[in-house]
Design goal:
6-stranded antiparallel sheet; 29 strands; 556 residues; 31% helix
């Protein structure tokens, strides 16, 4: 037996084909799933699972909020998959394929011949009716003042259908449930037997609800509905030369069909296609008009539901970021340690809610103090996660600061094993003995710190290796320099020197050095305040484009 495939189409239009050699595949927003889609607001953290059951395959919903649909029907219990079955969850569409099944549940658009040009040429056949929402609204304004008595019953029927649609769509339904409700209301309103509702995602139509199988829709019909924002009725497909020879029309005995745009005031977000095999129930112009108006009401409701989902997802994301920021803030020092013979302080501001900069202090029993500054490439949540991992490793390794070169070499090897290939970390560590002024340091690709000598001369701490996670076996070096009484050491991230003004000119090391020279006699905290004030003036108080970190130590 051939191994089946699971074809996964994501909300962004990308497609992935998985050979089903696995026994179980879980899907949802959580990274704990086998397939994780964290940006899909329609998915629950643990949404569904596809798993082997003997020789068959079963799909099971995991108690998700918005539910899972198979061929447009909500999944209430585990279901054995058949070839061609379509599973929808959130913005995902999954197809169970054995490779030789007939595409019974798929919707296929076919390109027609010259006959189908009649649909858009302005000379449709006598069986075809075309209208639009704009046309109907114009007719309503001119004809509502005087309705013929003969149309009263039909008008009442249409009004009842619209009232029921309004009542059904007014509640707070999950978006995926809403699609099915809209399709069912449409089928009932015009007594159709089969139908499909498709949403426009970018430039692709994606099945959102399905009642029936084997849909073969003319590409000319699709394009006319989407691009011309027009509704189309074919009263008798078997008599219409554009459709009468189509196998799908004959096979499913389609006699009458309607296609209408899901249209808000100014945009089309999808389409509804209905057909019927009944020779006794031929769709009418009134059916077309009714469905066109209902689709407008439904499109507005879908647009609103999407906005609600986006806002809900954004609120959750904001709350998660705030919690992450609180956790990250606790990883950084609550304050600078009290060090005999040194005045030290640290300062950090992420450019987003969370950031990738890290600084720390380590005090030792012999009176020495180690200071660390690091900068993870990138910004936001990925950078903050790598920063948290780095902080944990540094906390362990810094227990023994006897050889900083060995410490950084070990840290690099550990980081290389767990860091994604497109990420790296710049890192600087130094150890100051306030009693003697001896300063030992090792640098892994970080911006060289500045040393402001008593009197204002500025020196740069030379000596640099590659950033962490670039080369797994690099041997880092350490250097030693003397800090005299009154000298000031300034560690910083590149968010300080790369802060740009309105002309896109960076602050740079020279200007930073000049600021520090002007205030070298101040305390560490006051110097940091002068730097941040100067940065605000330089950037005209614009939000920082990168995380900003300062560590300042004066020997006193």
């Amino acid at each position: 037996m051939k191994t089946p495939d699971l074809i996964i189409r994501s909300g962004d239009g990308s497609t992935e084909t998985l050979s089903m050699t696995f026994d179980r595949l879980s899907m949802g927003r959580s990274p704990m799933n086998d397939r994780s889609y964290p940006d899909d607001g329609g998915l629950s953290r643990e949404h569904l699972v596809v798993e082997r059951s003997g020789e068959a395959w079963v799909v099971r919903d995991l108690g998700s909020k918005n539910g899972t649909q198979v061929n447009g029907a909500r999944l209430a219990a585990p279901r054995t998959l058949q070839p061609g079955d379509l599973i929808t969850a959130g913005h995902l569409v999954l197809k169970f394929s054995t490779g030789d099944e007939r595409e019974s549940s798929e919707v296929v658009f076919y390109e027609g011949g010259a006959e189908e040009a009649d649909l858009t040429s302005g000379t449709p056949s006598s069986s075809t009716v075309i209208t639009s929402l704009k046309e109907l609204l114009a007719q309503e304004r001119t004809s509502s003042r005087e309705a013929p008595v003969s149309g009263t019953i039909e008008m009442v029927t249409r009004m009842k259908a619209l009232i029921r649609a309004g009542r059904e769509l007014v509640g707070h339904r999950p978006l995926d449930d809403l699609y099915g409700v809209i399709l069912d209301l449409s089928l009932e309103a015009v007594s159709a037997n089969r139908g499909v509702l498709m949403g426009l995602e970018g430039d692709r139509l994606v099945v959102r609800a399905l009642r029936g199988e084997g849909f073969r829709i003319s590409a000319a019909v699709r394009d006319h509905v989407i691009e011309a924002k027009s509704s189309l009725l074919v009263r008798d497909a078997l008599q219409d030369r554009a459709f009468s020879n189509r196998d799908s029309i004959v096979q499913h005995q389609v006699r009458s069909m309607i296609a209408v745009p899901l249209q808000t005031t100014d945009k089309v977000i999808g389409l509804i296609y209905l057909d019927s095999p009944s020779a006794n129930r031929e769709f009418t112009r009134e059916d077309l008009n009714l469905l066109t108006v209902m689709a407008n009401v439904a499109a507005i409701r879908i647009d609103h539901a999407r906005l609600v989902e986006v806002e809900h997802t954004e609120r959750l994301h904001k709350r998660e970021l705030e919690q992450a920021a609180d956790i990250q803030g606790r990883l950084l020092p609550a304050g600078a340690p009290a060090v005999a013979g040194a005045d030290v302080m640290g300062y950090n501001v992420p450019c987003r809610t969370v950031g990738g900069d890290y600084y720390d202090f380590f005090s030792y029993a012999d009176g020495k103090v180690a200071m660390v500054v690091a900068d993870v490439s990138g910004k936001g949540m990925p950078a903050s996660l790598l920063m948290s991992s780095l902080q944990a490793r540094v906390q362990v390794l810094a227990d023994d600061p006897a050889n900083l070169a060995q410490l950084v070499t070990r840290l690099n090897k550990l980081t290389r094993k767990n860091c994604p290939g497109n990420r790296f970390i710049t890192f600087f560590i130094c150890l100051l003995d306030p009693a003697t002024g001896e300063l030992t340091y090792s640098n892994a690709g970080h911006s060289p710190p500045l040393l402001i000598r008593e009197g204002g001369a500025v020196e740069m701490l030379e000596g640099n290796g590659p950033p962490l996670a670039i080369l797994g076996s690099f041997e880092y070096e350490q250097r030693t320099i003397q800090m005299n009484i009154g000298d000031v050491l300034v560690l910083f991230s590149d968010g300080v020197t790369e802060a740009a003004n309105a002309d896109d000119e960076e602050l740079g090391e020279d200007r930073l050095g000049a600021i520090l020279q002007d205030h070298y006699a101040d305390g560490a905290k006051e110097m940091a305040n002068h730097v941040t004030t100067a940065l605000a003036e330089w950037t005209s108080n614009a939000p920082f484009a990168d995380d900003l970190t300062l560590v300042i130590a004066r020997r006193v």
